[in-house]
Structure formats: C-alpha cells, structure tokens
Amino acid sequence: MRLKVVVCYDGTLFSGYQVQPNARTVQGEIERVLKKMHKGESIRIHASGRTDQGVHAMGQVFHFDSVLKIPPKNWERALNTMLPDDIQVQSVQRVSDDFHARFDVEEKEYRYMLYHQQTLNVFQRNYACFVLETLNIEEMRKACRYLIGTHDFSSFCAANSTVKGDKVRTIIEASIECENNKIQFSIKGTGFLYNMVRIIVGTLIEIGKGNRQPYDMQTIMQAKDRTYADKTAPSQGLYLWEVIYEKNE
Questions:
Q1: In a 3-state reduction of DSSP, which class is residue 235?
Q2: Is 97 a catalytic residue?
C-alpha cells in the first residue's frame, strides 16, 4: 500500500530535510517513527524535494510504502502522536502504486517572509528576515515581471549546486503582498534550482533598496552567471508552501 502524506514543519532545529549522519533532519525523524511502527523494519520516504537548514514547510509532501493495514486517519493520528512537536502531519491519503511525490509534481509554491522594522523581533527571528532600510515595493513588483515564464535561471542557482542538465525553469507566478511592516513574497513554478528562491529574494531586496533597477533582473538572467545576482536571503524566511499535483491522487 502506498501512502501520500502532507506534512508541515518548523525548520529551526533541523539540519535540513534530507537524512544526514549525526544530524537531526526531518526525514530522519519521520523514518525513525515509521521504523518503530514497523517493528524495526526500515521504511524509506520519498519527498517532493529537499529543504535546507532553517527552511520551513507548510505543505511538504512525501510518500512511502507499507504492508500495515491502517486507515489513513489512523495513520495521521499515530504519526502525530509519535513525531516531535516541530513536525505535524496534515493529511494521509492512499494513492496508486505508481504515484511518486517527487516525479509527479506539477507545481510548487514557495513563500518568503520579511519584516521592515528598525529592531529585531525576538519572537519572529527564526521565521522571517528583517530589513532595516526602506524598500520600494513597486520597484520590486516591476522586477518580478521579468521572472515570469520559462528562462535559464543559472544566475539564481547556488554556485555549489550539483544539478545535472540545464537550468531552465518555468515561473508561473511571482508576487509581493504587504500588510503593515510585513512583506510576503510568493513564487510559484514547475521546478526550482538549489537556493533559487532565496537568491531571487535577495536580489529583489537590493532592487527595493534602490541599489539595482527592476530591468536588472533580465540582465542577470541573460548572464547565466551566479556572480551577477545578489546575496542569498537568509534561510529562516523561506517556506515550502504548497506542492501541487495534476489530480487528487
């Protein structure tokens, strides 16, 4: 039986999603619980993708196979009882055996949270980025328009990325919403490169500060060179918001 699981987690105390030796990870914690439920048998989970250290998720998706005859709602209750408090299962659903949480993804949405204020909010320091300078939101929105469509995003990929093949990706939506001093970036696409969203946000921040112009986004993309873009935005502001599949499996 194959099960599709939607999970959220606070990435603050994790060394990222992917299992690592001698490190606390989201995958490691979930597989530890599944192993216990399966009487010592190791169960491997397959996620829609990885998140880095400090990055959060509101709607990460993974699948796994099990011989246990447990109804989905009971799976949800059992997992939430055994998982640590910074991981919570949102739903469990039985799916066809050919479903794959990574390869069947149609779209993903990431959101990035930023606060514009003069002092650090100690209660939000692990969940948002703080910028002291005044930001020109309209200029940042103009820059977002250059991201829409299918482009080579090499300039927005971490230099140490091990991605194979081209770095062409399609961005469906890129928007910025403001509420008082809170700024939320939303980027939706069919696929993303390593650190792509954080590098985009870091560059948009510089445009907002007036250090760059909106049309620089196009120049940066055409360069296909990481050194043309700006600093990578801090990890704690990033959230894997939603993973979308073609149909309800």
A1: helix
A2: no
pTM: 0.94
Domain with CATH 3.30.70.660 in the chain: 106-245
Helices 196-209 and 137-145: angle between axes, nearest 10 degrees = 130
Strand partners, 109: 188, 242
> Of 52, 104, 216, 230, which one is the catalytic site residue?
52
Local structure of 210: helix, strand or coil: coil
Alpha-carbon distance of 97 to 124, in angstroms, equals 41
Burial of 185 (0-12, 13-18, 19+ CB in 10 A): buried
Summarize pLDDT for 112-162 with one digit per residue, the tens.
Answer: 999 998 788 899 999 999 999 999 999 999 999 999 999 999 999 998 877
Strands (E), 117-229: 129-131, 149-152, 168-179, 182-189
Is 196 within 8 Å of 156 (Cβ atoms)? yes
Q: Which listed CATH number (3.40.50.2000, 3.90.110.10, 3.90.470.10, 3.30.70.580) goes with 2-95?
A: 3.30.70.580
pLDDT of residue 247: 56
Topology of the domain comprising 106-245: Alpha-Beta Plaits (3.30.70)
